[in-house]
Structures are given as C-alpha cells and as structure tokens.
TrEMBL record:
Protein source organism: Nonomuraea ferruginea
Domain called HAMP: residue spans: 378-448
Keyword line: ATP-binding, Kinase, Membrane, Nucleotide-binding, Phosphoprotein, Transferase, Transmembrane, Transmembrane helix, Two-component regulatory system
The protein's name: histidine kinase
Transmembrane segments: 49-68, 354-377
Top-level EC class: transferase
Reactions this protein catalyses: ATP + protein L-histidine = ADP + protein N-phospho-L-histidine
Ranges in coiled-coil conformation: none
UniProt-annotated stretches for the region Disordered: 1-37
Enzyme Commission number(s) from the entry: 2.7.13.3
Length: 454
C-alpha cells in the first residue's frame, strides 16, 4: 500500500542528481585488458621517472666519455711527439758528430793520409761510436712511434751504421780521393736527417708543426755548411779545387741558403731573432769571407792560398771559423728541439687535465642525476602511496562504517564527515586527493539522503 510519504520519498529520490546515463557503463562491461607488463602505461612511476632522466644522462655521459677519449688520445699523441723528438735529438747529435768525422777524414785523405791528421780522426770516431750506441739504445723503444716510412729509414740507418767500420777501413787503407770519401759519409748523414721528417707527424698543434719544419731546415743547413768545411779543407790542402769538388762546394752553399730561407718562412719572429743572435760572431763572419775568397780565387784561376793575408795557416783558420758556424747552427737546432719538447709536454699536461676534469664532471653529473632522481621519485612516490593507502582506507573502512551508521540511524547525517586525505600539495597528486575527498563527501551526502528517504 502506498503512502504519501513513500511517494514523496520516491519523487525526491528521482530528483537526486546523478551522472549522465551516457557515462554509466553496464555492470557486466569488462575492464580493458592491462596488456603486457612491458607496456609504457604499466610502468611504475619510479621506473618512468628513471627512464625519463636516464636518456639525457646517458647522452651526457657518452658525450663526456667522447671528450675524455679525445683528450686522452691527444695527450698520448703529444707524448709520442715528445718521445720522437727525444729520438731525433740523438739523431741530430749523431749526424753532427758524424759530419765532424767526415770532415776530419777529408782532411786526412787530402793530406795524403798524414799521420798528424789521423789522431783527430780516430778520436772523433770514438765520439761517433758512442753517439751511435746511444741512438741504437733508444731506437728500439721509439721505433713503434714512427711511420712505416720512418721505420724503414731507421732500419736503413742501422744498416748504414753497421757499415761504418768497413767504410773507415776502406778510407784509411786505400787511395780513395777526398770527394768520394765525403760522399760516402754524406749518404749516411742524409739517411739520418731524413728521420727528422718524423718530428711533429700527426700533431694538431700549429706551433709544433712549424717548429719541426724550422728544426729540420736548420739541421740540413748545418749539414750543408759542414760539407763546405770538408770540401774547402781538402781543397786548401791541395791548393786547388777539382771541377767536381768546386761544383759540390757551390751547390752546398746554395742548398744552405735554401734551407735557411725555409727556416725563416717556418720560424716565428722570436725563433728568427734567436738564430740571428746565435749564428753571428767574428769567426762566423770570417768563415763567410774565406768561402767567398776561395770562390774568387778559383774563378780567377789562382791557387787557393793566403785566404787571409794575416796568416799562412789557411786550413786551420778556415776549419776553426766554419766549425764555429756549424756549432752555432747546431745550438739553434737543439734550442728548437727543446721548444718542441716543452710545447708537447705542456699540451700533454693540458689534455690530461682536461681529461681529468671531464671525468670529474661526468662523475659529478651522475651523482647529481642520482640525487635528483631519488629526490624526485621520493616526492612523487610517497604522496601516491599515501593517496592510495588513504583512499583504500576510506573506501574499505571509513566510508562503509559511516554508511552503516546512517542506515542504522546511529548518527545524524549532518554531523558525519569523511576525514580528508592527508596530502596538502598543490600539484596534480594534491588535486586528485581533493577529488577523492569530494567523491567521499558526495557518497556520505547521498547515503544521508537515502537514510532520510527511508
């Protein structure tokens, strides 16, 4: 039997707000399948956050590793330049001493193998043997640093040095003329000087490259000056040049000037100034005067004597004067070699510092990413866990208890309320928490309305 109260309650129940019909799913409509656990939507928040940060972090680490690798490779390259330069210092020393032996041998041969010229030659041979021993001692460890052509040249140099004793016996025990004697020594020295092409190979630094070119030019200029010493010494002992000897003397002067021009084009202003300040003295000027005087006398068809009217010891005066020029050029060569060693060591140290800095920066980046990831994950995961726990608590315990109290009439609907979820942030998680609170309040209100209707 219907009562007015029942009809009125039904009328009010029908007027209660509710979701649109179109938004209500059938009770038997299944939930969408969650899909694979590897699907992005099934990833945990922490995993997504780590993946989000891991990609740029990995890119940063790879770029840092590339920078570290480049710096370490560059440091190793400059270390190799320094080691090759050390080898070339021994090569330059041997070439210088061997040139002195050649010039002494030329004097010995031109003097008809006079015993007075033999003792200086023998002494110089001992000096050359010591230099060759030092070179061979370090060439084994440095050979792998040379190019293929450089390694072949070094092998040829070893072969040439092994022939030195035989060549010396031939010079002392035969009637070999001065010019062939000079040429035999010059072949060995030429092979040595070709090794200078290995200095600065592969170096990206322009200063090392230009200084290496300048050093090679000075070494070759020194060799051409030394050839002049041998040729004119032999000619003075005979009081004349033969045609081939004079041509060789003039060619040596021309090549020396060409190498000096190469040096000036490659050297820095400071290096050129150092050369001008070093290769200058009274003896250097006197040697140039003697060379010009010898050319003049030969062209005039006059015997090569009295190059200097103040003395009759033309051979000794010429030899001592031109030796001063050779030694000065060798001093410049050593200074340039030292500059290459210093520059390569500085660049090697700078690259190692850059590599260490890059490694430290990468480690700092990784540590910072780990800290940031941990903090951000904690700031996201903890509120989500609280939201989940509080929502389940309200849905599974608090809300059913309130509904039960309302149904049994144990409480006044106006006095009941659902405690809010304990999340006070203003981000999306806080907004979801407030939405849950609103849903819970609406559920209590609807339960109260239902209770009043009953």
């Amino acid at each position: 039997m219907r009562t007015p109260a029942t009809d009125s309650g039904r009328s009010r129940a029908q007027d209660l707000p509710g979701p649109p019909v179109s938004t209500l799913a059938p009770a038997d409509r299944p939930l969408p399948k969650p899909g694979s656990s590897f699907a992005l939507r099934n990833w945990r928040v922490r995993t997504r956050l780590i993946a989000l940060i891991a990609i740029p972090t990995i890119v940063g680490v790879l770029l840092g590793a590339l920078r570290v690798g480049t710096s370490i490779g560059s440091a190793q390259q400059y270390a190799q330049v320094g080691e090759v330069n050390t080898l070339m210092s021994s090569v330059g020393e041997l070439a210088h001493n061997l040139a002195v032996e050649r010039d002494r041998a030329a004097r010995y041969v031109a003097s008809n193998r006079r015993q007075g010229e033999l003792q200086p030659l023998t002494t110089q041979q001992d000096i050359v043997d010591a230099s060759a021993k030092r070179l061979l001692g370090i060439s084994g460890s440095a050979q792998g640093l040379l190019s293929d052509l450089g390694q072949r040249r070094l092998e040829l140099t070893r072969f040439r040095l092994g022939q030195l004793p035989t060549m010396r016996k031939t010079i002392q025990g035969s009637q070999l003329p001065p010019l062939p004697t000079i040429e035999k020594y010059s072949e060995v020295i030429s092979d040595l000087l070709q090794l200078f092409d290995e200095v600065g190979q592969g170096a990206a630094d322009e200063q090392i490259t230009s200084t290496s070119t300048a050093m090679r030019a000075v070494a070759r200029a020194e060799e051409e000056t030394s050839k002049q010493r041998a040729l004119l010494s032999a000619a003075l002992l005979k009081n004349e040049f033969t045609g081939p000897e004079f041509n060789a003397f003039v060619d040596a002067r021309a090549r020396r000037e060409s190498e000096r021009a190469t040096f000036r084009s490659a050297a820095t202003p400071a290096q050129r100034q150092h050369f001008d300040n070093t290769v200058t003295s009274v003896e250097v000027g006197r040697a140039e005067f003697y060379a010009n005087r010898a050319i003049f006398l030969h062209n005039a068809g006059t015997a090569l004597q009295r190059l200097d009217t103040t003395t009759t010891k033309d051979v000794d005066k010429w030899y001592d004067s031109i030796t001063r020029t050779v030694d000065k050029q060798n001093e410049v060569q050593k200074a340039l070699s030292q500059q290459i060693a210093t520059r390569s060591a500085d660049l090697q140290g700078a690259d190692r510092q850059a590599a260490a800095f890059s490694i430290g920066l990468v480690i700092l980046l990784l540590a910072l990413v780990l800290v940031v990831t941990a903090v951000m994950a904690r700031s996201l995961v903890r509120p989500l866990r609280r939201l989940r726990g509080d929502a389940l608590k309200v849905a599974g315990k608090t809300l059913p208890g309130l509904v039960r109290q309302l149904r049994e009439g144990e409480a006044d609907p106006e006095s009941l309320h659902v405690p809010p979820i304990q999340i006070s942030s203003k981000d999306e998680i806080g907004e979801v928490a407030r939405a849950f609170d609103e849903v819970h309040r609406e559920a209590v209100r609807l339960a109260g309305e239902e209770s009043r209707l009953r």
